[in-house]
Specification:
By secondary structure, this protein is α/β, with parallel strands linked by helices. It contains 12 helices and 12 strands. Helix 2 (60-66) crosses helix 9 (241-263), helix 3 crosses helix 4 and helix 7 crosses helix 11.
């Protein structure tokens, strides 16, 4: 995967490329690379077991390494890096990947395709980074004014559902707007060139546009979307006693790493910036607005019901070909004593 151009060479908006960050990107071609990490953050772990983990740029491997959670592994990890959620879940379905992280919408589409997947862990974060952006000089003041307007969005993404839900709250339907299905790089070009009236997108793109002062938030996903993200595993891996134990350990490490991110936002922003090419200020904005707010939660009835609403919405729009019972794609064995999915996301103080 080609590294993004440096922002100091091409200007602040040029860094907005489809990085597939924060596990929320949803469509596009697969691009996978592999590496092995373990004890000490760079060598094989102990033992003969290898856990195949799907990741996205600046995702799980980076945060685990930054938090020191790749030390003292009793198994090896073979990382496969994907450009977005759906090809990652295709790899889970094909048994090429044992587990990987995605946002709230890719599992719904994978379930609609009849994929062999199981959602095994969840986290709840702020949805303030999931936004509908408009240019700074736009006359639009509320979502209700989007009727007849053109809106860029990545099809099947978390932003796609946020757009559907935001329009519904405003008394509109998707058919009432002119949807332009564009991946982030193309959407950015259309947005900055004035070829679309609005852009439904997620962090860190939200933070980049706001930091560059090229756009403002018309509405965000707070109170609109569920703010959930998931770890999704292969049923075959879960049926293997040793791999299931490794998955449990891996999930425990991810939860501790998320706690580390919340406590060390500046340190994580520096690592994330270096790993992805994001400007540090944008990375820190995104951490405090979105990624750093996450708390590990149980996959409970409310979480399943919330995902069912997403599935039903896309089925009604005929973007998913069949009725999905989301509960059939969930495995709750790792819930343990985790708090309810409705647990409020973390927040940062104004001076933090």
């Amino acid at each position: 995967m080609r590294r993004p151009a440096r922002p100091h060479l091409l200007g602040p908006l040029a860094a907005l490329v489809p990085l597939g960050l924060l596990l929320t990107a949803c469509s596009g071609a697969s691009s996978a690379s592999t590496s092995t990490a373990g004890s000490g953050g760079g060598t094989d772990g102990k033992g003969s077991l290898t856990l195949n983990v799907g990741d996205q740029k600046g995702g799980s491997e980076a945060v685990l390494r930054a938090a020191g959670e790749l030390d003292d592994l009793d198994y090896k990890i073979r990382w496969s890096t994907f450009t977005s959620g759906p090809p990652l879940l295709e790899a889970v379905n094909a048994k090429a990947v044992d587990i990987g992280g995605v946002g709230n919408t890719p599992p719904v589409f994978a379930a609609g395709a009849g994929s062999k997947i199981k959602v095994v862990a969840a986290s709840h974060g702020s949805a303030k980074g999931d936004t509908i952006l408009v240019p700074d000089d736009s006359a639009l003041k509320s979502p209700a004014e989007l009727k007849g307007k053109s809106i860029a969005v990545a099809q099947g993404s978390s932003a796609h559902y946020q757009l559907v839900a935001s329009l519904e709250k405003a008394g509109l339907a998707l058919k009432d707007v002119n949807v332009k299905y564009l991946q982030p790089a193309d959407a950015l070009a259309a947005f900055t060139a004035g070829k679309v009236d609005a852009w439904a997108v997620w962090d860190p793109y939200t933070s980049q546009v706001l930091r560059s002062k090229k756009g403002r938030v018309l509405t965000d996903g707070d109170g609109i979307t569920n703010g959930l993200a998931f770890q999704v595993a292969s049923p075959t891996a879960l049926s293997d006693t040793k791999k299931s134990a490794a998955i449990k350990d891996y999930l425990d490490r991810l939860r501790r790493a998320q706690d580390w991110v919340y406590k060390h936002p500046e340190a994580w922003a520096k690592v994330w910036s270096k790993d992805t090419g994001l400007p540090y200020e944008v990375a820190l904005d995104s951490v405090k607005r979105s990624s750093g707010t996450r708390v590990s939660v149980a996959i409970d009835k409310k979480a399943i019901g919330s995902e069912q609403q997403i599935a039903d919405a896309f089925t009604q729009l005929k973007l998913i070909p069949r009725k999905v019972d989301f509960a059939d794609f969930v495995d709750t064995r790792f819930n343990g004593e985790l708090p309810a999915s409705s647990t409020a996301p973390r927040t940062y103080g104004k001076d933090s």
